[in-house]
Amino acid sequence: MRDRVPVVVQGSGRRARRAGLVGVLWAAAELTVTVGVVVLLLVVHQVWWTNRQAAAAAQEQVQALERAWDGGNTSGPVAPAPSGSGASVEPGDPAVSGAPSEGTPGPPAASRSPRPAAKPPARDQAYAVLRIPRLGLVVPVAQGIDKRAVLDKGYAGQYPGTAQPGAQGNFALAGHRNTHGEPFRYINRLRAGDELVVDVRGRRYTYVVGKILGETTERDTGVIAPVPRSLVKPDAGYSEPGAYITLTTCTPEYSSKYRLVVWGTLTSS
Questions:
Q1: Which residues are tagged catalytic?
Q2: 181 located within any domain
């Protein structure tokens, strides 16, 4: 008897190989989808959940400071409030701003004598509250600009070595524009004449926005100098001593390539 050609066997082999290839492609597609979902969840956590957590914790810290001041504790900074006990707050929500009513500005900073500088607060601890009525923003201020210890908590951080609130020199602050509470997200909306109010242990210092630098490099240290003036764009800034406030944040949004700068001068305290 003649041997038969194994046609059926060869066809079965091809089908098996095709089935194996389909299986590999399917597994790769499933892996791609899974990785995509994980990345999406990480983005949601970073952009949305960290914002809610940090903003809520920052508002709790503001309330802790205000309670301590109302209770007569004016000796120094207040320890951080425990997080997670308050309702989440969206940044820039006017309903929770607690912003002061606008008053009549006093004389320009250059024509008055600011209060003497207070003793610097403990590092990384919240000691003041910044209020920006136009933005409906209320945020605690801590000494230092460490990301984990200060900025990622949704606080504004004071650059080390800069002046204390109400004092001669430059009270310079940094804050996140995106993620972790993003307190400075909308400072690009500020205009000349807007108030920046700083409360410290029962004292209130009111600054008025004077100038805005839309973009400079991250190494432009002149913007936080005692007399703030850009080293990159020398026509931006001030030339006379005074009592200044500086707000800095990243720009453009979701990027840390450049810095956005807002300057103000003290009008009352």
A1: 176, 250, 259
A2: yes
